[in-house]
Amino acid sequence: MALKLERFVSPGKGDGLRAKQRVKAGDLLYTAEPLACCVSNRCRNGVCHSCFSRRETLLRCSQCKVARYCNVTCQKQGWSAHKKECKYLVSLHPRIPTDSVRLAARIIFGLLCPSQNTAELYSLEEHMSHLCDMSEEKMEGLSHLSSVLQLYIKQEQHEIAQKTPPIDPVSLLAKVTCNCFTISDAELQEIGVGLYPSMSLLNHDCRPNCVMLFQGKTLQLRAIRAIQPAEELTISYIGVLLPTRERQTQLLDQYHFTCQCQRCITAELDPLMLCGVEEAWTPLKEALPRLENMQTNGRILYKRINWEELLLECSTLLTPVDGAVPDSNVYRLRVTDLALDSCINLAQWETALAYGVQTLESYRQYYPDPHPAHAIQLMRVAKLQHFLGHLEEAQHTLRQAYDIMKITHGNKHSLTSDLIRKLDECRAEMDGN
To answer: From what superkingdom does this record's organism come (predicted)?
Structure first.
């Protein structure tokens, strides 16, 4: 099938991708398999290391005791990628290298034993490392990771030294840090990291015209609005629920550029994001890193007490700001989202629904174009409405979710199929009543 995109030089940005033809909202522009990928350490006990599906019960690799698989079939399919890694994980036991080190090692294993992969638009050698842009502190961190990487795969050092072009561990790790993608599940939760060389060409915009989603470890790039021939294709490298200064700081720190997109130049959403009394919302802003870490621990440890503690913290922060901080304030919105997640995990359905409904208008304002995060939020609320017997509201919310999801996910995506089934259930129950 002919490519709908092509590589070009984007003015002021360097290499990029642009449309070769007129593109409609919802069009699938590109599908890619990773050059290399691995399950994130934080998810390693609950995600299959071959197909990247979440499972409550997984088979564990009998040798390294780290990799886990749905079944024997997945284990066999994943063996070629895991074979070399396995013996090195055994040698380091009980230590486990960071995600970036494991991903870099898998890239090296692939370079030493190249396969007949589909031609990429962007080679690994062309990837930017941004070493010259990094602070001394970051360079020290990379140097440490490089030492760990070389210790991890020390038996490959002879082959690495003979490789042409030579493999520089520091440069490779820098390229991984700047160019790898977070692989997410249907709920947009992190499950792994991967390098997709052609997709590394995509430049950033805080209001992009494309989104990336994953089916397992397969990446899909879709247009979320109409795109003209020769128009640049963009994605957002970071979450958009941040005011301009925080977005720009994060992009400069991680990707080494100052964003000059229209949303950043005009700071058009900042008055909405930062509305309310600053003294009232500042404690919410300051608490978010700690609260999000508690959420991560809740997902990893699967313990009720973690979610109870998080919900208590969120409700304690939210109660005093009523009247002083509107629902649309971005820090209030994010804390409310954490409270919603806690309630769902604690089976407090009525409270969860109240929190969820409270977020929907803000999601509509912050995601004016179709976006997976908006669709998934609507679907979460709709499921709660359906479970609690609010059938008309559930049907309305599911339809809103579908209108977005048919563009962001496409009708063949597993999550879209789940939504359609839920909509059919809702209709059947309403007809039965």
So the answer is: Eukaryota
